[in-house]
Design brief:
CATH class: Alpha Beta
CATH topology: Purple Acid Phosphatase, chain A, domain 2
Distance between the termini: 36 Å
Number of strands: 15
Bound molecules: fe (ii) ion
Shape: globular
Strand content: 15-25%
Oligomer: single chain
CATH architecture: 4-Layer Sandwich
Order of helices and strands: EEHEHEHEEEHEHHEEEEEEE
Radius of gyration: 17 Å
Largest sheet: 7 strands, mixed
Number of domains: 1
Helix content: 10-25%
Length: 273
């Protein structure tokens, strides 16, 4: 756990990058897209439009080929960003390679499972099931979440993970979310301090509410998937990121920005990846 200083009531400023899908080699492409180049452009837009946040969140699928080198390439792309970078794994990641590759690189990647930044608590959950596309929340993760929420009852809480914990309206994606999302919400429902749930994996913007809790997902920094599609379908929307401002009053101000000028070589007619 990390405890950071705060100048309350200044909001806690977060930039979320998700599903960067880096390769070990520069010529690696995902559905025709140079994922490193796409991330560089999204990162540039983030710095120019939002400045340096208090922290960056990377919510999984950082690698596409699960190699230490791919994580080192990501760390090199981030470089000395001026803010700590917190990570959690997605289905395309491998825990050991992620930790080793990001530890070796120049960026300030950190592996804390929860962060306290008064008056906010951010919990990072691990939904990765090795060799599976879909996600699961083991009992240990649910217990860790509950212990954190019990330990900081007066902090507003943001709960982050890779996979989506509830259906998002796309049949093919809704078979590869968290298979026990109801267990997550059973825990969250016990703690009114939870203000938001944030994830990646679905490669599209999503915003909803449940029992007063803000539900958010974010476009990938490379390839996008079409919302509300029965089958796998690539979307032509540009790559992007999410900014969040967590207010001292518990309110979440947030939005998605996209890198409009990136020319990706995207293969729109792909039937899968
Ligand atoms: Fe992904
Ligand atoms: Fe994923």
């Amino acid at each position: 756990m990390e405890k950071l200083s705060s100048n309350a009531p200044t909001p806690l400023r977060i930039i979320q990058f998700t599903d960067t899908h880096f390769f070990k080699n520069e010529d690696g492409r995902l559905l025709g897209v140079d994922t490193g180049r796409s991330f560089n452009e999204v990162f540039r837009v983030a710095r120019e439009s939002r400045g340096t946040p208090d922290l960056y969140l990377f919510t999984g699928d950082l690698s596409q080929d699960e190699t230490e080198e791919s994580y080192r390439r990501l760390s090199t792309a981030v470089g000395a960003s001026g803010a700590p970078c917190y990570v959690l794994p997605g289905n395309h990641d491998r825990r050991s390679e992620l930790r080793q590759g990001l530890s070796d690189g120049p960026a300030d990647f950190r592996f804390d499972r929860f962060i306290v930044f008064d008056p906010w608590l951010i919990v990072l959950l691990d939904t990765l099931v090795v060799d599976e596309v879909g996600g699961h929340l083991p009992l240990a993760e649910l217990e860790m979440l509950e212990e954190c929420l019990k330990a900081y009852p007066n902090h507003h809480a943001l709960v982050c993970m890779h996979h989506h914990p509830l259906p998002v309206g796309a049949d093919w994606l809704d078979t590869i979310g968290i298979d026990n999302g109801q267990d997550l919400f059973s825990t969250i429902d016990k703690f009114p301090s939870v203000r938001g749930v944030l994830w990646g994996h679905i490669h599209q913007e999503f915003q909803s509410h449940r029992n007063g809790v803000c539900l958010l997902a974010t476009p990938s920094t490379c390839v996008q998937f079409k919302p509300n599609s029965s089958n796998f379908a690539v979307d032509a929307l540009p790559p992007g990121f999410r900014w969040l401002e967590l207010g001292a009053d518990g309110l979440i101000h947030t939005g998605v920005c996209r890198a409009l000028d990136v020319s990706t070589g995207l293969e729109l007619s792909s039937a899968g990846y």
